[in-house]
Amino acid sequence: MTSLFIGLMSGTSVDSIDAALLEITSTKKPKLIATHSHAIPQATQQLIHALCRPGTNEIETMGRLDRSLGALFAQAAITLVNKTEYSNGDITAIGSHGQTIRHRPSSSPDTEPSFSLQIADPNTIAQLTGITTVADFRRRNIAAGGQGAPLTPAFHRAICQGQAETCAILNLGGIANITVVANNEIVSGFDTGPANTLLDGWTQRHQQQPYDADGQWASTGQCQLALLNQLKAHPYFALTAPKSTGREQFNLQWLDTILANTDAHPFSAEDVQATLTQLSCDTIATQLLALPDEVKTVYCCGGGAHNRFLLAQLAAACPDHRIVTTEALGIDPDWLEAAAFAWFAQQTLAKQTVDLGNATNANQATILGGIYLA
Questions:
Q1: Mean pLDDT lowest for which of 4-13, 26-35, 68-77, 107-116?
Q2: Beta-strand (E) ranges in 44-119?
Q3: 186 with 306, same domain?
Q4: Minimal CA–CA distance to 330: which of 158, 166, 165, 186?
Q5: Residue 57 lies in domain
């Protein structure tokens, strides 16, 4: 039986909502049918960024933003369907990750409860689209003792079915994460640290562009080793997996504090960008080089898969690995995360548990997400 599901995702860049239409059968790998990138208005972006940091009147802001983002997510799904031969009635369900505004995994859950909070009201999405919506995927994983992220290793496992070799998938989103799949099982999955979130923020501040296309601006600068070493001193990098992180730890305010306290002369903006790129490269490469010897190919996805400068640095740091994109696995690297949440919706409706113990440290496999009927 063939079913159609939509996945909706907004990541740390907060520039758009990714919408992916996925065809799922019981006998084949999920197939990407159509995609749509739905812009988030600048004023809404600013509210999201503000809400990601502690501030005043957060409940009021969150409540209103939750509803308005729900409407935007719904419009993204409707626009996606309108680009195809299908109608809303042909879609079994929407899987919406929502927009993360706070991710607080705890190293001591017995004394400090973990939480992860996403907004984009699924009630609004279901009401406006007329399509059953599945959302709030992270919190059940947290309830089972996990960190709530990364969740996509479960989908990585699904698209790696049939691969004879051990697969390593590197997601270069705002945060980088690595999944290792062997013999159709998740061996490990964890966040390595920043991929694009610092690069994008610094580019927006100094170039008034949302990202550094191809890493071209970074390539004009020189990596500053003293600054790099200060950045690498962040305690997250010393943690053992499973582990997850986000903008709460890696943001421009953290970077500004380090820059303000440096004893060296002020760095040029392009030198900082080059150093941030090296930070992403080094912290990712350290983890890639620690993978089992049988990992020969690294499949990249996410926006960073287009950063030629970063990929060239990774290739130089990991000369024994073949670095390609997830196109080789049949999934466009730009749409893998959105596709993942379409797949998660299908798993939830089928009452299939998802085992993420080796990725999030959850103590049991669980059914993820809440169902909001159309």
A1: 107-116
A2: 93-104, 115-119
A3: yes
A4: 158
A5: 2-148+336-372
